[in-house]
Amino acid sequence: MNQLFKPAAITLLIVSALIIVSFTGKPVIPKATGTKLNPRIQVAVLLDVSGSMEGLIEQAKAQLWNMVSTLGKARCEGEIAPKIEIALYEYGRSSNNVKEGYVKQINGFISDLDSLSQNLFSLKTNGGDEYCGQVIYSSLNELKWDAAAGQASYKVIFIAGNEDFLQGNLHYTKACSLAKQKGVIVNTIYCGDKMQGIRENWNLAGECGNGSYTHIDQNGKEDEIPTPYDSLIYSLNHKLNGTYISYGYGGAAYKAKQAEMDNANASMSKAAGIKRINAKSNGAVYNNAGWDLVDARGTGAVDLAKIDKKDLPDSLKNKTSAELEKIVDAKSKERNYIQKEIATLNIQRNTFIATAKAKNAGNKNNGATLETEVEKIIREQAKRYKMNIQ
Fold first, then answer.
1. Using the 8-state DSSP alphabet, how is residue 170 labeled?
2. At what angle do helices 251-268 and 270-280 cross, to 10 degrees?
3. Are strands 83-91 and 40-48 parallel, antiparallel or unpaired?
4. Which of 6, 191, 349, 354 has its CA at 20 to 30 Å from residue 176's CA atom?
5. 19 φ, ψ to 5°?
6. Is the pLDDT of residue 31 over 60?
7. What is the pLDDT of the chain when averaged over all its residues?
8. What is the pLDDT of residues 116-154, one digit of tens each?
């Protein structure tokens, strides 16, 4: 008898629970478990690499570090620093796959800024058709955009170019529809006259994704203003590089890439080199836990007591775990000190430059560049996600 009545009893309990809920209107909801992930800032940069865009590519190489520094100042509620990831696409190259609209992903979302900079320096211009709708759609469809429920991540696309926005078979409205579904803002940057950009429909995509339309002079260059702080900052950067300890497969190659990108940016201009150094002074943004032992230990990526000595540089392979801990601790403290010194000098340098620009405001070129427009847009849009950029 008991076995026969068990199903009925269970049913009665369920019905009773439903009746109680219907009368109280307060069902018991289990509390969510698990660790809340930090919000992200995900940026996809889509660059026209057709023949007339050499100036745009040069600006992109230099402006990367200003964008990174701006993003690195973002703080969410509770002073949480969001994780920053940047993806890069090129479009308009005739040698790219025609079936994919001459669009190519250079890298997906990464936080390895040296590799990102290296990828930017590898871009070369070439003639081709520029399919804006296609490259926006491809970036939305291919990249791993943050989809965590209730997570206020700032997800944004910057597309820059100078041909008719409506070229290609994939209409921009299809891309915009996908952007809205994924909560991604689309910003368009026309390289040329503002009204010409509107005539070529560059304002349309910005409107559909709650983004911005702006224009720049792709051949414009920032005024180079020497300061008393420049040589000091470069000297500190040399010392900063000395605090990195490569480890693991390819670690030495990544450390070499760090120096390579220092030189590449400095070769563009002293200002470009310093902007990179300034970004490197923010350990939350410029973090190399994948190959640097100091960052890896700081993020908990490695346990020095268990690390395989084969993964270490020759000078450290015979060190005991205690000796290794002491060396890494010393490098970590040295790095923190140097980064603070660089940050302080950079503030003084910026003040010096601002004063010089104010004195010569009537004689200097104040035209919009990729750097000035991207920073302006980021500062405005980050507020929508309760992110404060200091």
1. S
2. 140
3. parallel
4. 191
5. -65, -45
6. no
7. 88
8. 999 999 999 987 889 999 999 999 999 999 987 656 899
Domain check: are 293 and 350 in the same one? yes
Packing angle of the helix pair 321-359, 230-241 (nearest 10 deg): 160
Contact 60, 120 (CB under 8 A): yes
24 part of a folded domain: no
Mean pLDDT in residue range 199-217: 88
Identify the CATH number of the domain in which residue 216 sits. Answer: 3.40.50.410
Q: Quick one: pLDDT at residue 277? A: 98
Q: Do 327 and 183 share a domain, yes or no?
A: no
Residue of 120, 87, 90 lying closest to 102 (CA atoms): 90
Residue 332 and residue 371 in one domain: no
Q: Which of 164, 212, 166 is nearest to 185 (CA)?
A: 212
CA distances from 115 to 85, 87, 253, 313, 387 (A): 12, 11, 11, 22, 27
Say if residue 194 is in the same domain as residue 243: no
Residues 343-354, mean pLDDT to the nearest whole number: 96
Residue 139 lies in a domain: yes
Q: What is the pLDDT of residues 278-313, one digit of tens each?
A: 999 999 999 999 999 999 999 999 999 999 889 899
State phi, psi for 165 to the nearest 5 degrees: -65, -20
My answer on whether 94 and 205 are in the same domain is yes
Q: How far apart are CA 348 and CA 345, in angstroms?
A: 5
pTM for the full predicted model: 0.86
Q: Count other Cβ atoms within 10 Å, centred on residue 162.
A: 24
Domain of 253, in residue numbers = 230-359
Residues facing 160 on adjacent strands:
47, 189
CA distance 238 to 245: 14
